[in-house]
Amino acid sequence: MLLLIGLGLLAQIATIAVAVYLLQFSRARLGWICVIGGLVIMLTRRIITFSGGIGEPTVHALSPWNEWLAVSVSMFFLAGLILIARSFLWQEKIESDLGMSRQHLNAIIKHSDDAIVTKSLEGIIRSWNPAAERIFGYTAEEIIGKSINTIIPPELQNDEREILAAISRGQRVDHLLTERVTKDGARKNVSISTSPIKNSSGRIVGAAKIARDITAQKRHQDAILESEIRYKKLAEEISVLLGREQIARRQVEQANRMKDQFLATLSHELRTPLNAILGWAFLARRQSDPEKLKEGLTIVERNARSQARIIEDLLDMNRIMSGMLRLDIKDVSVPTVIQEAVESVAPAAQAKEIHLESTVESRAEEVRADANRLKQMIWNLLVNAVKFTPAGGTVRIHAHRTQTHIEIMVSDTGKGISPDFIPHIFDRFSQADSSSTRQHGGLGLGLSIVKQLVELHGGRVEVRSEGEGKGATFTLSLPIPVFKRDLHGATEGELELPAAGEFGEVSSLGGLLVLVVDDEEDSRGLVKGLLEEKGARVLTASSAAEGLELLSQQAFNVIISDIGMPHEDGFQFIRRVRKLPSEQKGTIPAIALSAYARQEDRTAALEAGFHLHLSKPVEPSELLGAVSRVVGPAVVPGP
Q1: Which DSSP helix (H) or strand (E) runs through 160?
Q2: Residues 351-397: tens digit of each pLDDT
């Protein structure tokens, strides 16, 4: 009996233990376990009750246990029935919730703005939502069952194989920026996130892909990047322009300072000789002593020539900078040019007791150059040397020949040049001392003109100085040979005219009748006096109209006319003369004598009908020689 009771208790304990273990399973299974457990307890109770034999209960001995077993059977049966009932209700709820979740998920997939695609591990498309149709152009019927490579560019298909390999290993691929191809062949920028799909047993069977169209965003980002690059470049350009603007402003400020300084210097250099001219002219009118009068006239002449040199330097610089300077290249005697230049500066050197030395090697006696311009270069260097050499010093000029050049060196024992100023010594208007307390005058054009002239000859000029107080040496180098440079050529109709100083002495202009047309009385009187001194007969006119009136009354041999006149200028005057019939003197030789001294003024005068153009102030010998040349030897009597 006790054995049976023990077996019954063990059966109950086992049943309860199994029930607790199976709590991890569903409510339906637990309910059925409870029912089965109740049946086991019930059988145990029956065994105990009828253990004395069939039909002979033993309840009298085990009544408490019998009651407990009866209650347990009832409880197990009741719990099992309840759990089974609740399991059916729970299953129905789960299925309802699952259906709602599926509907919600389908709605999300259907209305998503992103393409949601599922595919197998082999890359075969299994599902295709409406956004995928909208983005890539394929309908679900067209694309499902095809390879995902249908929408992948050929050069990116290796990337897709790497993605599928990562998915097979259970890895995710998030926010991959790449490109995909639409049905019409267009390319779109997309951001792709891919996750593995697992079955109920946890095995990876495919991949779910979400693709977001970022074409517009990429375009916007590219536009922003392009704008940033453009703005950065613009900022750099602005920075460069600002730098250039600052440099330009400094250059303009420097140019303005140089201009103001130049104008002040020019005013000083012009007013100084003008003061001497006006003062000595005033004294000459009151002077009865012939020696004093001669001294005064010499001073007037010297200062007038100084003014003429300043003006000529300005005109030369203008001709050089405008490219209108004409060179007359020919064989030139170097000793002759050097001697003439030395003689020109000798009075100034003697006044300062400066010793002048000149030597020319035999192999350097000839060079091809413009004789007058070469003399001008040498003269400028000599004047510069004399100016900056103290009294008792020495100025040397030496010419020699190298293998390829003729070199003319001008050295002095003067104040020398500081190293800081040497790079600027050939700049226009550049002077080492431009203050009002400077010891030496000048515009700062001479050395710049030398540099420009020697470069027009194909040569170069250099300067060397060991420092202040140690003198300086300038070296002109002219190539051998210098190729002839016909820079502008003679204007048609121009008569060849020797340079100033090469006319020779005109002994007489007797027998010539000359018409002088000039609105300035002093200029008319000067020209008339020079010509009459040589025996010519001169009639003057103060205007073009008056000149034409005289032409109608007299047969003149030559006309000398100014250019700048009121009412009717010299160009208009000569054109009217040239329209006259030949028997009315329409072919009379004519010379333009004008203060308009530019190359274009000369060209315009020749084109208008003048035979020659002379610039004011004119050397007397130059004017007389020009008259002699234009009228010809048949008209001018010989010496």
Answers
A1: helix 157-168
A2: 889 999 988 888 777 888 888 888 888 888 988 888 888 888 999 99
Contact yes or no for 515/608 (Cβ under 8 A): no
Q: Which residue blocks in 286-333 are alpha helix, DSSP H?
A: 290-322
Predicted confidence (pLDDT) at residue 496 exceeds the cutoff of 70:
no
Residue 595 near residue 570 (C-beta atoms within 8 A): no
Q: Residue 54: pLDDT band by 50, 70, 90 thresholds?
A: very low
> Could you tell me if 589 and 611 are in contact, meaning their C-beta atoms sit under 8 angstroms apart?
yes
- Cβ proximity of 83 and 30 under 8 Å: yes
In the chain, what is the greatest distance between 2 CA atoms, to the nearest angstrom?
193
Taking the whole predicted model, whether its pTM rises above 0.85 is answered as no
Task: Output b/e per residue, 460-488; b: 16+ Cβ within 10 A.
Answer: ebebebeeeeebbbbbbbbeeebeeeeee
Pair of tokens at residue 382:
């000599």
**Segment 227-274, tens digit of pLDDT:** 888 888 888 888 888 888 888 888 788 777 766 666 666 665 667 677
Cα atoms in the 13 Å half-sphere on the side-chain side of 441: 14
**DSSP-based helix, strand, coil % in the chain, nearest 5:** 55, 15, 30
Dist. CA 598–CA 38, nearest whole Å: 137
SS3 333: strand
pLDDT of residue 435: 42
Which of 36, 38, 47 has its CA nearest to residue 8? 47
DSSP for 349-407? Answer: HHHTTPEEEEEE-GGGSEEEEEHHHHHHHHHHHHHHHHHTSPTT-EEEEEEEE-SSEEE
Instruction: Name the β-bridge partners of 331.
Output: 368
Gyration radius of the chain's alpha carbons: 60
DSSP code at position 492: T
